[in-house]
Structures are given as C-alpha cells and as structure tokens.
Amino acid sequence: MESEHATPRALVVDDERQMRDIVSFALETQGFTTVEASDAEKAWAACERQAFDVIVLDVMLPRASGITLCRRIRAFSDVPIILLTAKGEAADRVAGLEAGADDYVVKPFHPRELALRAMAIVRRYRDANAVSRIVNGGLEIDPRTHAVLRDGERLSLTQSEFSLLLALASRLDEEVTWTELLQEVWGTDSLLGGRDMVKTAIYRLRGKLGESSAAPRYIHSVRGLGYRMPRLPPA
C-alpha cells in the first residue's frame, strides 16, 4: 500500500466535504497529490486501487469508524496513518494508537501544521530506508524493508512503532529523551499529551518484543527522562 513515487500521495478520509477540501488543499501546498474518501468503504477501495504514502483519517465516520478502518489497514500495511479526533476525546486517541495509528491531530487544528506533520512522517519513513541494518542481541532491524526480527521471528510493527524502535536502536547505550522521541517519531516536541502517546507506543512495542517494563531486555526506562536501549552481545 505504500507508494514509491517521488511525489507523495495522501488519502484524506472524512465524511465532511469541507474538511476534506481543507485538508487536501493544505497537503497539496506541501507537494502531495491527494485522493478523498467520505467513508471507510470508499477509503478501503481507494487503498486497493493505489498506494499511498500517508493516510489522514477522521475517527468519526458513518457506518464503520476510522479506528475500525485503521485496524483493517494495519492488518497488512505499515503505511503512516494520522487520526483526526475531536477535542477532549482522549479515549479515541488512545484507541486509535492501540489500533496502529502513528499520530493524531485534535480538531480544530491549523491545516498547515497537519500538512507539515504529514510531510515529516513521510520523510522519516523514506529516510529510514537509507540507514544500514542494525543487529543488537537477538534483534535485527532492516530500515530499507522495515523488517524487524526477534530471535529469527519476524515482528509486525506499525510505522510509529518501527520509527520508535529505530530511534532507540540507532543510539545504543544512549538516553533518548521524551522530547527527542516525540520529535523524531511524531514530528512534535510538545509534551502536552505527547508523553502518553510515547508511553502507549512503548507499551505496544514491548509487548511485541516479548518483554515488559518490569523485566526489560531491549527498552529500558530512564526515570524522568525517557528510554534507552543497551548494547547487547550477539544472541
């Protein structure tokens, strides 16, 4: 589902025509080509027809919700997904991140900020392909293919989970702050709500790595600062 075209492609999914037009215009000013869909089924059909570099997805859609669509897409693709949520709906944001979304923007929002965040996510996704393969303990990370192996078993990670893992694995034995992770993975340095976003992603990532905060192997918490991945001997 991910596009390999030089010009990034975005799918904008919202049941309100005016909102779709606003988001599409903002993305197009940043160099995106856009496709619009008014509900989950039309969005899914668009995904089957062509590849996208990012999907901007409203949580509140008729019939099937944006979170349901996010989960459906995540079953076979790691294309970056940005959720649009209503102000104060923290439950939607958490549910969206748990479903595999990479970022969220709360309505009302500045269209240019959304477009810049979308471009930042696409840039990080593409830049990761230029990084060499990383091996640490029983963990193997291939940024070019976005493949992650743990003890020879391939893991299924979302784009934000992959970017988070890569950010830590690229700086072994270094303490990486909350702010640095927010900037590198989500394109924001605001800790307002951002710390919960990092915690949720770390929790999911640890689960997929087969570890917990009580007995970490790869991701260690640094109290009051962030996280660290220790350098480990070959498995």
Q: In brief, what are we looking at here?
A:
By secondary structure, the protein is of the alpha/beta class.
Please give a handful of descriptors for the protein shown.
single chain, 235 residues, alpha/beta, Rossmann fold, Arc Repressor Mutant, subunit A, 2 domains, 4-stranded antiparallel beta sheet, 8 helices, 40% helix
What does this structure look like?
A hairpin with a 2-residue loop joins strand 8 (147-150) and strand 9 (153-155). The model has no long low-confidence stretch (mean pLDDT 88). By secondary structure, this protein is of the alpha/beta class. It has a 5-stranded parallel sheet, sandwiched between helices. It starts with 8 loop residues before the first strand and ends in a 7-residue tail after the last strand. It folds into 2 domains: 9-127, Response regulator (Rossmann fold); 131-228, Arc Repressor Mutant, subunit A, CATH 1.10.10. It contains 8 helices and 12 strands. Helix 6 packs across helix 8 (194-209).
Strands in their spatial order, largest beta sheet: 2-1-3-4-5
Q: How many structural domains does the protein architecture include?
A: 2
Could you give me the name of the CATH homologous superfamily of the largest domain?
Answer: Response regulator
Mean pLDDT: 88
By DSSP, the count of extended strands is 12
**Shape annotation:** globular
Low-confidence stretches: none
Helix-and-strand structural type = alpha/beta
Assign a percent range to the helix content: 40-55%
**Termini Cα gap:** 33 Å
Major sheet summary line:
5 strands, parallel
State Rg: 17 Å
Task: Quickly name the level 1 CATH class of the largest domain.
Answer: Alpha Beta
CATH topology of the largest domain: Rossmann fold
Task: Work out the helix count.
Answer: 8
CATH architecture of the largest domain: 3-Layer(aba) Sandwich
